[in-house]
Amino acid sequence: MYIVIAIILFGLLIAFHEFGHFIAAKSVGVKVNEFSIGMGPVILSRQGRETKYSLRLLPIGGYCALEGLEGENEGTKDPGSFQKKPVWKKLTILLAGSFMNFLLGIIIILILLSGSKAFVTPVLDGFMEGFEYQGPGYLMAGDRIVSIDGERIYTSKDIQLFLSRGNGQTVDLVVKRNGEKIPFKDFPLALREYITEDGQSVRKYGLKFKVVEANLGEVLKNTWYESLFLVRTVRLGLSDLITGAVGIRQLSGPVGIVAVINDVGEASESTADAIENISKLFALIAINLAIMNMLPIPALDGGRIFYMLVAFIIEKVTRKKVNPKVEGYIHGTGLVLLLALMAFVMINDIVRLL
Predict the structure, then answer these.
(1) Is 269 noted as a catalytic residue in this protein?
(2) Is residue 198 included in any domain, yes or no?
(3) Staple partner for 31: which of 4, 67, 277, 328, CB 3.0–4.6 Å?
(4) Active-site choice (18, 67, 226, 327)
């Protein structure tokens, strides 16, 4: 059941992305030849005044076919061609897909947090018994943690994230106390054994954080902070990939994502927990897709935007029109390489599952 749900959700993400392109194209007067939900053989289709609307068999995405997107119709006199529109209209269309995915992620987070009773803040409320570095000259109750190792802190989840990514012994800490920012260089903050009030032994950093009651303002604020947290996880993942901290074999594609969603659902204690946990993962995937699609890689929307801006600058400087076929060659090559990477990732996902 969870595998079917995962496939449908993954398809919904792509369809939502393409719907963003569709709405933006229609709003700025670009002709949409076909808008399809799903891929593969056509189940239902209807020809509108300008656009063909299709429902296809496989629920694994969709597409929005724009007139003249690749530049092959540069010579056409159709005023609805993508290539005939000014740069700002092209940007609007290309950005709309990722915007819709990001918006979808925010909406999911908002729905999940709307039932919260309270939120944990990055404000210190006290310390566990035995924590040594408290008092004047160290940390004090009421301090708001502003940054850790140069990374801005918004929630207690940010604190946990960047403490776990540190050297495990010290951090560069900045706190706000009575309106003043106080820096602590190489502050000793490491996991160690503490005894809880009920006598349990736990490994923690020894910090306690203030909890505030949930209201509309706190829900909206924490929805945005949670969205930023997910953006950060994607950014850090990309950074780790570039620096070699993680290998390319650790990448996951659609097969791996479906498997993870299935595992999350089956590991949940109840159906309600499964829905909540899958929804959290779905929000991460939506925001991940929004960011990844904006990378300046040929064949992706980010690559199209990058090429378009470079071509725009070249044309303004040289006063010569860039051959539209060049864009087709670049994105065609990029698509081949992207498909090769996707094939590698898919095979790797299957090997991992086996």
Answers:
(1) no
(2) no
(3) 67
(4) 18
Helix axes 254-267, 2-27, angle to 10 degrees: 130
Q: How many CB atoms lie within 10 A of CB 303?
A: 22
Q: Give residue 130's pLDDT band: very low, low, confident or very high (50, 70, 90).
A: confident
Angle value at C-alpha 230, between 176 and 334, nearest 5 degrees: 130
* Count of all residues that appear for the chain in the document: 354
Residue 234 corresponds to which tokens in the numbers above? Answer: 């994607």
Q: Which of 182, 184, 206 is nearest to 193 (CA)?
A: 206
Task: Give the chain's domain count.
Answer: 1
Amino acid at site 72: E
Q: Whole-model pTM? A: 0.85
The answer to whether residue 108 sits within a structural domain is yes
Structural domain contains residue 302:
yes
- Report how far residue 75's alpha carbon sits from residue 48's, in angstroms, rounded to the nearest whole number: 25
Quick check: 276 and 20 in contact, CB under 8 A? no
- Other C-beta atoms within 10 Å of 21: how many? 28
The Cα angle at residue 334 between residues 338 and 94, in degrees rounded to 5: 95
At 10, the pLDDT band (50, 70, 90 cuts) reads confident
